[in-house]
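User: tokens in, sequence out, please.
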């Protein structure tokens, strides 16, 4: 699932479905380029060693979980 891939504030920002939450997250990274750079670096470091097959499997499982929760 997405929360398993993202460590809030470290390598990304987790938000809900509301426009306000999405807007606030975008505003946070817009107003803090340092935070954006830190999260980008952390995300790149965290992805080292992942094969494309592993990425494909995890993304596929995440999409399946999203679809299952929306139906």
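Assistant: Sequence out:
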């Amino acid at each position: 699932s997405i929360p398993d891939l993202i460590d809030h504030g470290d390598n990304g920002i987790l938000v809900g479905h509301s426009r306000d939450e999405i807007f606030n997250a975008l505003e946070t990274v817009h107003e803090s380029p340092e935070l954006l750079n830190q999260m980008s670096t952390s995300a790149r470091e965290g992805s080292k060693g992942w094969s494309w097959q592993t990425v494909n499997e995890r993304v596929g499982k995440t999409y399946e979980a999203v679809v299952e929760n929306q139906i």
